[in-house]
Amino acid sequence: MALFAEMVDKLIRNFFKAADLIEEQIPLFVYLAVSSLILGFVQMYCLTLSSKRQARRIRILFFDSLIRQDASWMDSRASGSLISLLSSSIPLIQGGMGNRVGSFVRDVVLFVGCIIMAFVKGWKLALVASASLPLIGISFAFLGFSLKYFNNKEIQAYSRAGGIAGEVLHSIRTVFAYGGQETTYKRYSSELYKAEHTGIRKGMAIGAGNGFVSLSIFSAAALSLWYGITLVRTEKFSNGTVILVVVSIIISSIAIGKALPEIEAIARAVTSAKKVYAIINRIPSIDIDEVGYAPSTLIGKIEFRNVCFTYPSRPDVPILKNFNLTIQPGEKVAIVGFSGSGKSTAIHLLQRLYDPQTGEVQIDGTNIRDLDLNWLRSQLGTVSQEATLFTGTISDNIRLGRLNATDREIEEAAGLAGADEFITRMPDGYNTWLSEGGAKLSGGQRQRLAIARALIRYPKILLLDEATSALDTRTEKAVQRALDRACVGRTVIMVAHRLTTIRDADKIIVMKEGEIMEQGSHDELRAKQGQYYRMLQAQVSPFYH
User: Fold this and answer.
1) Where in the cell is it found (predicted)?
2) What single-letter DSSP state applies at residue 464?
């Protein structure tokens, strides 16, 4: 900057005097041009490389933190909003880093350097020209506040819209079945309208801010020229000094003008970063990384002691009330009851997806809060109502149960689950590629793969959460045979809706409104003619006639 200013001053003062002196300045201009090219390329390359790497690292940290959060936190947040954060907020953060930061710093330094140079060369003229600087500062303050406020509102609106879109696409068949396209369209459009309205207001604020800044800049330039002419006449200021000061003011104005878009991008990045890092820095209440006690062996005795529980998302609705239950090693226990009675909650607590508000859940006499969470879950095999399959081969999906499983172990688990018979009929066998959700497979086939995935863990405790309730009668029988084989030699907890599947259970627990109403074997409970008997009568089952 100093070299450039000196060159300009000499060039103007001697423009009509000495051609040789002017020619001496030309190589210096070439030097400045070449060095600016090289340094500009290096700057942009390094900053872009840095921003890409930082964005990748932020994505990894965000996703890693997201999948480690506890279930209660997940329950209170829409999955679409979290997906929107991952897909849209992180690019905004990247947009506020890298070359934008470099350009912003360069423009600010250029602005400050030009102002300093103007004061050094002609402080009187620079002082008058800088009279508009407070107005520029106020304009920037207004602009920055407006950007921060409206960016936050805009991101929230788009996040809600993304949540609606994700929810609809996830349940698109239900939307089709009930003709909900118009309703969901209106919901989505409403959120987009809010985002659009916020964006328009933000544009108005940016326009007003830019207008004030431009007014200040051009006022400073006009004032500088007027006062510069006066100084040339009265104080013998050189033409070169006046031009240098005026050019410095103009360049500083251009630098500020170029910095304006960068301020907006950086403001959006800061707003997005706060949301993303709020999740990255959050420590879950149930932390999978927390080291706990890992016994060398597990016998399989389970105890629920005076357990009271409410879901954090519904704190005013008690789910379990002083729940007490003891399950002996190798025992097969079924839990039945109407919807909302707390059947599945018992399984969720045993998996330690949630912690009870009061009471304890114990395995082999140890509170599961004291057990290492990774170890605990490695001892549990879970088969739910909805068999979740992921994009990949059949072998990959079964191996998710135990990542170091061999191909032979995968085939053994599939055979035990009754899945081998249909897998071997496929052209690619265990290498058959499955799309998301296993759309190519029937419900029974998907469920048998889920059973195989649970069995490959060699679990001591098997949890069956309405594993056959979504299947037709014929498929249910085939899957039930696979489950019966899987239950041998294990402690089993079955949550069931169809009572045909639990007749052979060692103990049946009948629940109502979070409390145990009855317990005993099928024959014992049927003889009592209580709640279980009434549930039997309510179902069309061949075994009670």
Assistant:
1) Membrane
2) E
The answer as to CATH 3.40.50.300 being correct for domain 300-379+460-539 is yes
Reading the block at residue 360, the tokens are 């304890």
Cα 228 to its chain centre, rounded Å, is 58
Residue 358 · residue 295 · CB < 8 Å: no
pLDDT digits (tens, 9 = 90+) for 133-144: 677 666 766 776
Query: What CATH number was assigned to the domain covering residues 2-280?
Result: 1.20.1560.10
What is the C-alpha R_g of the chain? 36
For residue 543, the model assigns a pLDDT of: 44
Is-contact 301 333, C-beta < 8 A?
A: no
Q: At what angle do helices 443-455 and 473-487 cross, to 10 degrees?
A: 10
* Cβ(467)–Cβ(335) below 8 Å: no
Tokens of 19: 């051609």
Residue 124's contacts (CB-CB under 8 Å, 6 or more residues apart) are: 227, 231, 235
- Which fold would CATH assign to domain 387-458? Rossmann fold (3.40.50)
Strands (E), 387-489: 392-393, 433-434, 461-465
* Mean residue pLDDT across the chain: 82
* pTM of the predicted protein model: 0.69
Report percent pLDDT > 90 for the chain.
17
In angstroms, the CA 94 to CA 272 distance is 10
Give the C-alpha separation, 491 to 350, whole Å.
13
Are the CB atoms for 308 and 323 separated by under 8 Å? yes
280-323 pLDDT per residue, tens: 999 888 888 888 899 988 999 999 999 999 988 888 888 999 99
Instruction: Name beta bridge partners: 437.
Output: none
Q: Find how far residue 264's CA is from the centre of its chain.
A: 24
Burial class of 294 by CB neighbour count within 10 A (0 to 12, 13 to 18, 19+): middle
Edge-to-edge order in the sheet of strand 491-495: 380-384, 461-465, 491-495, 332-337, 507-512, 515-520
* DSSP type of residue 501: G
Q: Give the torsion sign (CA, 263, 267, 270, 272).
A: negative
8 A C-beta contact, residue 454 and residue 380: no
